[in-house]
């Protein structure tokens, strides 16, 4: 018997089939473009996601007996706005999580709902990455498109709709729309009414491991899945990664370095940061929660640097060269704010900075500074997440960036905590598959499923001397943003 996970990432869709012990049996990925019509905007075509999922599912199902799939689960980039008309046709390109166009709408939401009320209900002030501000932007700037809208979906939920024909979301992904009452795990009448958003446009909210629909006949023909195969509600990408790394117990945590970067901690009980520097969302574990801090451009910073400065070099080659350079990159510091920032600044206007650049620096220095700058941004998140609710009592690391031994060791040294490598197996796609397996009855619950499937890798232990060196540069890193904060906003207004 198999379990299958589908992950709708920012750069590619990945589909993988696993046996019931969590071993990868078949996997496939397919990339798609990101469109930036204006500086700070970010859009994708939902049809590209669907084409990629069809391709990867056909590839995977050609290598296994698809009648033996117990269930399919989903993981996806959060916050994206997918709008469908009365005939279920996509109205406009999806405005995705890293889009920064909605600063004005965020100010309006904070004022209309009230800052304290918004925090009490959604556990956050309005953010440009969240879905509510995107809906408001379409209302104001594309009223004809909004009038056509009969359904609002999140990215992974659009894919499940194409497979099963039903409209559902899960509590973890819905948490990032800024329309959910986080404690009640249901849409907030108060927020939706004040913002003029019809709740009937939103999908039913279920728990992540629930079976919510099954594969239809046309989807079966296009994908190689068997008609009637169970589809789980699934989870947002970070919540799914938590399942895939076994972070479903109070105080367990993971760091992921994907396109964005995240420090995530499981909380059995609700806890939040009243300054809203980090997020409190519903967990994929029914009835429980998680806190997480987000840096917008983690792996994205590295991709941007390699594409523009070292396109002919492999990441492993660049790592090898950077490892020969000392901590601090000869006094060169990078701020990874290519797409604005969430934790801890909630600032859509800040931008990337190389500070301290001189004639002594080579592209190898700049590369190491990028690695360190992303590490510092994750340390910002780690320090805040550590201080809210249950203390962190275990850390894993996953995502594409975690495949770098140099970056893994940096994170361990900066955090001053042992970090278990989950880059070779655990992560969002496995987590999605586990959710599918529970929905399809392959396991009685998430705890049994994670115990059966997850294998922890080697642990990077921190070095106290390196931690002290990084801390000296980290203090300067934090000061640079404060010095430039007003200038970022001035630059955006020019």
How would you concisely characterize the structure shown here?
The protein is α+β, with helices and mostly antiparallel strands and 494 residues long. It is built from 17 helices and 24 strands. Strand 10 (180-181) and strand 11 (186-187) form a beta hairpin.
If you had to describe this structure to a student in words, what would you say it looks like?
- It contains 17 helices and 24 strands.
- Helix 2 crosses helix 4 and helix 12 (315-323) crosses helix 13.
- The protein is globular.
- It has two domains: 2-239, ATPase, nucleotide binding domain (Nucleotidyltransferase, domain 5, 2-Layer Sandwich); 247-425 and 463-494, Nucleotidyltransferase, domain 5.
- The chain is 39% helix and 20% strand.
- The strands form eight sheets. The chain has a seven-stranded mixed sheet with strand order 18-19-17-16-22-23-24.
- It is α+β, with helices and mostly antiparallel strands and 494 residues long.
- The longest helix has 30 residues, at 464-493.
| CATH top level assignment of the largest domain | Alpha Beta
Give the spatial strand order of the biggest sheet.
18-19-17-16-22-23-24
Distance between the termini: 59 Å
Give the full name of the CATH homologous superfamily of the largest domain.
ATPase, nucleotide binding domain
What share of the residues lie within helices?
25-40%
- The name of the CATH topology of the largest domain is Nucleotidyltransferase, domain 5
The total domain count is 2
Largest sheet: 7 strands, mixed
Shape call: globular
Strand content: 15-25%
Question: How many DSSP-defined strands?
Answer: 24
DSSP summary: helix tally: 17
Query: Which architecture of the largest domain does the CATH hierarchy give at level 2?
Result: 2-Layer Sandwich
Uncertain stretches of 5 or more adjacent residues: none
Q: Mean pLDDT, rounded to whole units?
A: 96
Rounded to the nearest angstrom, the radius of gyration is 21 Å
Structural class: alpha+beta
């Amino acid at each position: 018997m198999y379990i299958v996970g589908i992950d709708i990432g920012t750069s590619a869709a990945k589909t993988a089939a696993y046996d019931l012990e969590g071993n990868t049996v078949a996997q496939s990925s397919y990339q798609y473009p990101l469109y930036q019509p204006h500086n700070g905007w970010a859009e994708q075509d939902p049809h590209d996601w669907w084409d990629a999922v069809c391709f990867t599912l056909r590839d995977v199902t050609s290598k296994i007996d698809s009648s033996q799939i117990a269930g399919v689960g989903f993981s996806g980039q959060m916050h994206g706005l997918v709008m469908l008309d009365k005939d279920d046709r996509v109205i406009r390109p999806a405005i995705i999580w890293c889009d920064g166009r909605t600063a004005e709408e965020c100010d309006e939401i904070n004022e209309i709902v009230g800052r304290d009320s918004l925090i009490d209900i959604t556990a956050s002030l309005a953010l440009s990455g969240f879905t509510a501000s995107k809906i408001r932007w379409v209302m104001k700037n594309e009223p004809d498109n909004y009038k056509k809208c009969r359904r609002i979906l999140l990215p992974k939920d659009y894919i499940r709709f194409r497979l099963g024909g039903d409209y559902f979301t899960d509590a973890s992904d819905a948490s990032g729309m800024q329309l959910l009452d986080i404690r009640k795990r249901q849409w907030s009448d108060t927020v939706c009414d004040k913002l003029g958003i019809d709740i009937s446009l939103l999908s039913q909210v279920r728990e992540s491991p629930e079976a919510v629909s099954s594969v239809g006949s046309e989807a079966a023909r296009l994908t190689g899945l068997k008609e009637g195969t169970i589809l789980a509600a699934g989870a947002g990408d970070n919540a799914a990664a938590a399942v895939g790394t076994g972070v479903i117990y109070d105080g367990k945590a993971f760091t992921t370095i994907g396109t964005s970067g995240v420090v995530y901690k499981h909380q059995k009980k609700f806890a939040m940061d009243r300054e809203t520097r980090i997020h409190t969302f519903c967990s994929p574990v029914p009835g429980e929660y998680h806190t997480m801090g987000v840096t917008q451009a983690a792996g994205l910073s590295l991709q941007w640097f390699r594409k523009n400065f070292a396109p002919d070099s492999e990441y492993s080659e660049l790592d090898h060269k950077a490892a020969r350079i000392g901590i601090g990159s000869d006094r060169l510091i990078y701020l990874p704010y290519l797409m604005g920032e969430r934790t801890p600044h909630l600032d859509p206007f800040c931008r990337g900075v190389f500070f301290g650049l001189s004639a002594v620096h080579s592209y190898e220095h700049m590369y190491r500074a990028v690695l360190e700058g992303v590490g510092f941004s994750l340390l910002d998140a780690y320090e805040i997440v550590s201080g809210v609710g249950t203390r962190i009592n275990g850390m894993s690391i996953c995502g594409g960036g975690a495949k770098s031994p140099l970056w893994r060791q940096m994170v361990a040294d900066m955090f001053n905590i042992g970090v278990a490598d989950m880059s070779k197996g655990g992560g969002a796609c496995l987590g999605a598959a586990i959710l599918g397996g529970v929905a399809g009855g392959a396991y009685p619950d998430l705890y049994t499923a994670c115990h059966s499937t997850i294998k922890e890798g080697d642990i990077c232990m921190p070095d106290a001397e390196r931690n002290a060196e990084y801390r000296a540069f980290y203090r300067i890193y934090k000061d640079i943003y404060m010095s430039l904060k007003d200038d970022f906003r001035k630059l955006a207004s020019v």
